[in-house]
Amino acid sequence: MSRYDDGMQVRREVLGDEHVDRADAATTDLTADFQRLITEYVWGGIWTRPDLDRRTRSVVTITALVARGHHEELAMHLRAALGNGLTVTEIREVLLQTAVYCGVPDANAAFRIAQQVLEESP
Length: 122
What we know:
Elements: H1 3-15, H2 17-25, H3 32-46, H4 54-68, H5 71-83, H6 88-101, H7 104-120
Helix pairs in contact: 1-2, 1-3, 4-5, 4-6, 5-7, 6-7
């Protein structure tokens, strides 16, 4: 398999077919190369590495997204974290930890987003 194929497989496993299909359908001539970069580099080059499991990668990703204030991506990765086996309790602990190192306002926004995601989840 190519790095792209590996990346697409992991991307689908972590984010779900519906999300990936929606992203693919929204791809334009302008964004096609960027979508390919995400699939190959992020999902095929980083998320496929064997030395961290997906649960740990989700914790790192959530923390980074809180720190940078990337709320849309945070909601998506909170859903993915649940699929990667994180519990609601573990997500709460990650967000509490981010309050200390990323700031209370960022953690406050993250808790609000997490509550919305949890209310949407089956």
